[in-house]
Design brief:
- This protein is mainly β.
- About 5% of the residues lie in helices and about 35% in strands.
- It has one helix at about 1-20; strands at about 70-80, 85, 90-95, 100-105, 110-120, 120-130, 135, 140-145, 145-150, 150, 155, 160-165, 175-185, 195, 200-205, 210-215, 220, 225-230, 240-245, 250-255, 315-320.
- The strands form four sheets. Strands 3, 4, 6, 7, 8 and 11 form a six-stranded antiparallel sheet that branches.
- A hairpin with a 3-residue loop joins strand 6 (about 120-130) and strand 7.
- The N and C termini lie far apart (about 165 Å).
- Residues about 280-290 and about 290-315 have low confidence and may be disordered.
């Protein structure tokens, strides 16, 4: 029994010695305190100024409008100063948003036109015939079902004479510039009235009253169809002028009558100035009269009218040939 106790004590002692002399396991690594600090959320917005967005691949498609496959009928009569206009071209312009569809039809021998099975809506209607007639103003209608639109056209043919005088008001003793423009009126294939200048046409002026030529009375028109004449008013009176063309046509123009030019306004009468009162009327500068002259301003109260200046090409005024 004693031997057993001795063996147990020896085993316990050996175990303790082994535990004391053995190599201990390493302790776990302590994490860094920097990694454990909380991160504060940011409130700053992202700068997108430098971001680039790639372009989208594709194209925008717009469906064109037309008159085809509709249920509307447009009809009417084209007449001019002498009656119906046979063979006139009638133009329909259908407007949808910013798009316009154009359709042209011809009037028959009686000047009537008709276009069926077309689309309606807002339609501008006009007519013309090359080279002499066209509508002066386009009609705008709302076309639905059967819509009748009668059109009136005007004649645009022959020679056109326009004139201008600059300055517009002629004065005695001052010169003016009279400009005559000669052109021919024609309707082009698009139905637009054009004024084509006539070059090399002889123009002669004959005064009828006070307004007189100050130089030559006959000129040839230039490439723009213009002929200029220097005019003057030796006296007060009317200013009518006859214009004769080398083509045999003539007309009469009537600028403003010659008048006396305005004169310089007289000086305004000032009340007496009290030398002792620097704020009195007549001393607008508020400067003491006893102060040196170099510190005082002179106030002029007269208005001078500058002489008239000749205008090379003022606004032209149309006139009809007789």
């Amino acid at each position: 029994m004693a031997k057993v106790r001795w063996l147990l004590a020896l085993a316990t002692t050996a175990t303790l010695l082994a535990a004391c002399t053995g190599v201990a396991e390493p302790l776990p690594e302590i994490p860094s305190t920097l990694a454990l600090r909380p991160t504060a959320p940011t409130t700053r917005r992202q700068n997108v100024a430098r971001l680039s967005i790639p372009p989208l691949v594709g194209s925008t498609t717009t469906t064109p409008i037309s008159f085809a496959d509709g249920t509307v009928t447009l009809t009417g009569l084209v007449t001019g100063p002498d009656g119906p206009i046979p063979g006139a071209t009638v133009v329909f312009e259908r407007v949808v948003g910013e798009q316009t569809a154009v359709l042209r039809v011809l009037a028959d021998a009686d000047g009537r036109y008709k276009s069926a099975r077309i689309k309606g809506g807002i339609v501008r209607v006009s007519a013309y015939r090359i080279p002499d007639v066209a509508t002066a103003q386009t009609k705008v209608v709302f076309a639905a079902d059967t819509t009748e639109v009668n059109l009136s056209v005007e004649k645009f043919s022959g020679t056109d004479v326009q004139w201008a005088l600059g300055p517009a008001q002629p004065y005695v003793g001052r010169s003016s510039n009279l400009v005559i423009r000669v052109s021919v009126k024609r309707v082009d294939p698009d139905g637009v009235v054009r004024f084509a200048p006539l070059e090399g046409i002889g123009v002669r002026i004959v005064p009828l009253d006070a307004l007189q030529p100050a130089g030559a009375t006959e000129r040839l028109t230039d490439a723009a169809g213009l002929a200029s004449f220097q005019m003057a008013c030796p006296r007060v009176g009317g200013s009518g002028v006859n214009v004769f063309l080398a083509t045999g046509e003539e007309t009469k123009i009537g600028p403003r009558s010659c008048s006396v030019p305005p004169t310089t306004a007289p000086p305004t009468t000032e009340p007496p100035v009290d030398p002792g009162d620097p704020n009195s009327v007549g001393n607008p500068d508020g400067v003491n009269p006893d102060s040196p002259n170099s510190t005082r301003r002179l106030v002029r109260r007269t208005t001078t009218i500058d002489p008239g200046v000749n205008v090379t090409q003022p606004e032209l005024v149309p006139t009809s040939l007789g």
